[in-house]
Design goal:
21 helices, two-stranded antiparallel sheet, elongated, Immunoglobulin-like, 561 residues, Membrane_prot_PTPS-rel_domain, alpha+beta, transmembrane helix, membrane, Membrane protein 6-pyruvoyl-tetrahydropterin synthase-related domain-containing protein, single chain
């Protein structure tokens, strides 16, 4: 039985369409994080206003704006903006972002699984990954766009790492750089827990292959650093400018990790499904199942692999890979369980993950990879094909019921974004996220349409604003103190008649305040790059140029031969 390569692409696309079939229906659906459409709308405003990379959004924070995309990973929204610019609505573009996450994860898991187990093993790993129940939780329950995309690129990074170690050339160093950058730009917190696993995986492969150990380690480091460089425009400000926004609320109340541990029973021995939230005593809330079919298959593969190894019928490399992924599975399960609380209390920065059950990402990754090993253990080609197709069918059959929306509402962009309810939601939901540090509390009402005269006598007119700029004219009859409805934040440059002026933020909301002398004046505000943002942008541009140089140099070498 011969299968052409395009058949696998068709099968992965079919699996994606089955998993995302509800996303292809008109309207929009209920999810926990119901700001995805709004974030895409704000990204659209940025791009059309020439703000790139997008950092400041004008409508959130109750209309005062705040630096959302200086801290919130932007990659899915850049993709969504491309889709929107092709003519699709914001609602359909957002759903396309979710569908793309399924498709990318399927393709990259296939490439990784194929490298380990062959074509049909790769196909099985791909479908297991797409149809892992937690994958559905991310999309249909939580609406966690960025985590969904991070899951998509994890197998891509591992695939590139394997290729770097396995090959004699450096062809996949740029591939690793791109994949790692895309991971960082999808979800920086997920990259935080994925990176150690990727690093250990690379070192294990180098030890197993025993080929040019020093050179392979150098190549992996170069690939990783290139990836960090490509994503530097986002990652450096996140780290170095964190002190300029309120992040303490991300660890308080609902977001305290102590409220979100999960028992083994709920992880392994249930097929419960619901659309509620996580937290204390949420007995009928969010589903946390690993997937009974998934973990049983992974355990069977592990047992059979051990048996075949001791019978000397399995290569040492495969045996150790089985152990590696099985330990990732067990270790990640442990991090979700209450018994891991001491690790959570002592590991630095880990509390920013907020939810221990985020480690289910590594659980479904590891058991999906292992599940594909079922095919590898069969030596007969026909048996491999039949087994793979049967298990693909069973995977979909056992899990398809979880891949559905709770409710779908017939609506348009206008109803979602610009109705009174929709616009209020866009402006006020997650209002404390990334609120500039000078604000003592979030605003209690919407921003005024024009600057306010706090002292003196003046009149404002010709007020204009964009995503990262604000401009107005003012006629001052008596020296006036003017409060502009924009949060102060490093990078804002305020000019009076083209000359820089002193800015104050000595008010409860930390709004930009200036003193204007008597006369007619033009006031302009522009968000400029801080030294950190300038260097971050420069590093990304230089990294991108070096990446293109490496790629085209290799192509020229190949063509000259």
């Amino acid at each position: 039985m011969k299968f052409k390569k395009w058949i696998f692409a068709v099968l992965i696309l079919a699996a994606t369409l089955i998993a995302s079939r509800d996303l292809l229906k008109p309207g929009y659906f209920s999810i926990h994080d119901d700001l995805q459409v709004g974030r895409l709308y704000e990204m659209d405003l940025c791009i059309k206003d020439g703000q790139f990379p997008c950092r400041w959004v004008p409508d959130m924070g109750y209309g005062y704006g705040y630096p959302l995309f200086n801290y919130y990973p932007p990659l899915p929204f850049y993709f969504g903006e491309i889709v929107h610019l092709m003519g699709f609505s914001f609602l359909d573009s957002t759903k396309a972002m979710f569908v793309a996450g399924f498709l990318i994860s399927g393709i990259l898991m296939f490439l990784f699984g194929r490298k380990l187990w062959g074509d049909f093993g790769g196909l099985l790993s791909s479908v297991l990954y797409i149809f892992a129940p937690y994958h559905s939780v991310d999309v249909y329950v939580r609406g966690a766009m960025n985590e969904h995309w991070a899951l998509a690129f994890l197998p891509g990074v591992c695939w590139a790492v394997y290729e770097i170690v396995d090959r004699k050339d450096r062809k996949f160093v740029p591939v690793m750089a791109i994949m790692f950058a895309l991971l960082l730009l999808s979800h920086n917190l997920m990259a935080f827990i994925f990176t150690p696993v990727i690093g250990i995986f690379g070192l294990l492969l180098i030890w197993l292959k025993k080929k040019d150990l020093k050179g392979k380690i150098v190549n992996l480091i170069i690939g990783g650093l290139f990836g960090v460089g490509l994503a530097a425009f986002f990652t450096l400000p996140v780290i170095l400018e964190k002190r300029f926004v309120h992040v303490e609320t991300m660890l308080m109340g609902y977001f305290n990790y102590l409220a979100h541990f999960v028992s083994i029973g709920k992880l392994l021995f249930t097929r419960f499904w619901g659309y509620g939230s996580s937290g204390w005593l949420q007995e009928t809330g969010m589903p946390f199942q690993v997937g009974v079919f998934h973990w049983i298959l992974a355990v069977l593969v592990f047992i059979c692999g051990n048996y075949l190894f001791w019978k000397k019928k399995l290569k040492k490399e495969i045996f150790f890979l089985f152990y590696f992924f099985f330990f990732i599975f067990l270790g990640s399960l442990f991090m979700v369980h209450p018994r891991s609380v001491q690790l959570w209390k002592n590991l630095p920065m880990i509390e920013y993950l907020q939810f221990p059950w985020r480690f289910l990402t590594l659980v479904i990754f590891s058991i999906s990879v292992m599940g594909g090993g079922t095919v590898y253990l069969l030596k007969n080609k026909k048996a491999q094909i039949l087994c793979s197709l049967l298990l693909v069918f069973l995977t979909i059959s056992f899990n398809i019921e979880f891949f559905r929306v709770e409710k779908i509402f017939p609506m348009t962009d206008t109803e979602k974004l610009f109705s009174a309810k929709g616009w209020n939601k866009l402006q006020t939901d997650a209002i404390f996220d990334y609120l500039p540090i000078f604000a003592k509390a979030p605003p209690g009402g919407p921003a005024p349409n024009r600057p306010e005269i706090k002292e003196g006598k003046a009149e404002t007119h010709d007020v204009k604003k964009g995503t990262d700029w604000y401009q107005f004219k003012i006629n001052v009859s008596e020296e006036a103190k003017i409060q502009i409805p924009v949060y102060d934040f490093p990078g804002w440059k305020v000019e009076i008649d083209g000359k820089k002026t002193t800015v104050f933020h000595d008010n409860f909301l930390g709004l930009i305040t200036i003193v204007v002398s008597q006369g007619e004046h033009l006031i302009s505000l522009n968000l400029r790059n801080t030294p950190v943002r300038f260097m971050a942008n420069l590093i990304s541009v230089v990294s991108l140029c070096l990446l293109f140089y490496q790629i085209f140099r290799k192509k020229n070498k190949i063509s000259s031969k």
